[in-house]
Specification:
InterPro entries: DUF34/NIF3 (IPR002678), DUF34/NIF3_sf (IPR036069). The radius of gyration is 19 Å and the shape is globular. The protein has two domains: 124 residues, Udp-n-acetylmuramoylalanyl-d-glutamate--2,6- Diaminopimelate Ligase, Chain: A, domain 1; 120 residues, NIF3 (NGG1p interacting factor 3)-like (Udp-n-acetylmuramoylalanyl-d-glutamate--2,6- Diaminopimelate Ligase, Chain: A, domain 1). Helix 7 links the parallel strand 8 and strand 9. The protein has ten helices and eleven strands. The protein is an alpha/beta fold. Helix 1 packs across helix 10.
Length: 269
C-alpha cells in the first residue's frame, strides 16, 4: 500500500523544501499522510477545474506547482473560493501537495523541463544556489544556431497553446545559439541574463518597461515571452516520471492537460 506520506517523501527528496524561497508556501496543504493513494493528479494550478478532474478520477493526492494558500490565512471557510477547494478535496478524500520555488530551484527542476521541451541542452543554472548546481533558471545551448524568428516558432511549437501565444522581442534574423530559460515570471532576472551575454531569454510575464529598458542595453539578449502556465506545464511530466519511477504500477500518475492559463481570449488587428 502506498500512502500520502510515501508520495510526500519521494517529492521532498526530488524537490527539497529547504530550496524554497522564504516567502513561499510549499508542502502538504491538506490530506492525511497515513491515507492510501492509488491515483495522483499532477497539475500547475490547484483551481476549480483541476480539483474537479482530481475528484472525478478519485485521486488520493493532487500535486500542484503553484501554492493554494501562499499568503497567511486565518481560516478556510467553504464560502471563500480557496476554502471551498480545501473542503471539496477533504470531502473527496484527496490531499494537496504544492512544490513551488523548491521545484524551480531543484536539479532537475522546472526550468530543466522547459529546456528539454524546447530541445535545449542545459549547461548550468541562471542564478546558482549555494552548491552551484541548484538555482533558478538555466543556461542552455541549441544544437545549431538558428534565426531568432525560427527560434520563436520553435518555442511556440513546443509548448501547449494559449490564447496569448508566444511573443518575441529582437531582430528576427539574429542568430540564436545560447539561451537562458526561466519557467514562470522571470523579468527580475533580466539583469543577470544581460550580463551572461546569451543570445535569447525565454520566460513568462514580461512587462513593457523592463523589456524596453533591457532592449536598450548594447548586445542585450532577444526576449521570448510565453504564458506563465505554459512555461511551467512541462514540469508536470517531469514530476510524474519521478513518481512513476518510485511507485511503478502501484500508483496511477496522471498529468492534467487542462489549460489553466487565466487568459482565454485574444484579438489582433
Amino acid at each position: 500500500m502506498t500512502t500520502v506520506g510515501d508520495v510526500v517523501e519521494v517529492l521532498e527528496a526530488a524537490y527539497p523544501p529547504a530550496l524554497a524561497e522564504p516567502w513561499d508556501a510549499v508542502g502538504l496543504v491538506c490530506g492525511d499522510p497515513a491515507e492510501r493513494v492509488d491515483r495522483v493528479l499532477v497539475c500547475v494550478d490547484p483551481v476549480e477545474s483541476t480539483v474537479d478532474e482530481a475528484l472525478a478520477m478519485e485521486a488520493g493526492l493532487v500535486l500542484a506547482h503553484h501554492p493554494l494558500l501562499l499568503r497567511g490565512v486565518h481560516g478556510v471557510p467553504a464560502s471563500t473560493p480557496k476554502g471551498s477547494l480545501v473542503h471539496r478535496l477533504i470531502r473527496g478524500g484527496a490531499g494537496l501537495y504544492c512544490a513551488h520555488t523548491n521545484a524551480d530551484s531543484a536539479s532537475p527542476g522546472v526550468s530543466d523541463a522547459l529546456a528539454d521541451a524546447l530541445g535545449l541542452t542545459v549547461v548550468g543554472p541562471l542564478v546558482p544556489g549555494e552548491d552551484g548546481v541548484t538555482g533558478i533558471g538555466r543556461i542552455c545551448e541549441l544544437p545549431e544556431p538558428e534565426p531568432f524568428r525560427v527560434f520563436v516558432e520553435r518555442v511556440a511549437a513546443a509548448l501547449p497553446a494559449t490564447a496569448a501565444g508566444v511573443r518575441g522581442a529582437g531582430d528576427p534574423d539574429r542568430p540564436v545559439r545560447t539561451v537562458a530559460v526561466s519557467g514562470g515570471a522571470g523579468d527580475s532576472y533580466l539583469g543577470a541574463v544581460a550580463r551572461l551575454g546569451v543570445d535569447a531569454y525565454v520566460t513568462a510575464d514580461l512587462r513593457h518597461h523592463p523589456a524596453s529598458e533591457h532592449a536598450a542595453l548594447p548586445g542585450a539578449p532577444a526576449l521570448v515571452d510565453v504564458a506563465h502556465w505554459a512555461s511551467e506545464w512541462p514540469w508536470c511530466e517531469q514530476a510524474a516520471a519521478i513518481l512513476r519511477d518510485a511507485f511503478g504500477g502501484n500508483v496511477d500518475i496522471t498529468v492534467s492537460t487542462l489549460r489553466t492559463d487565466p487568459w482565454t481570449v485574444a484579438a489582433a488587428r
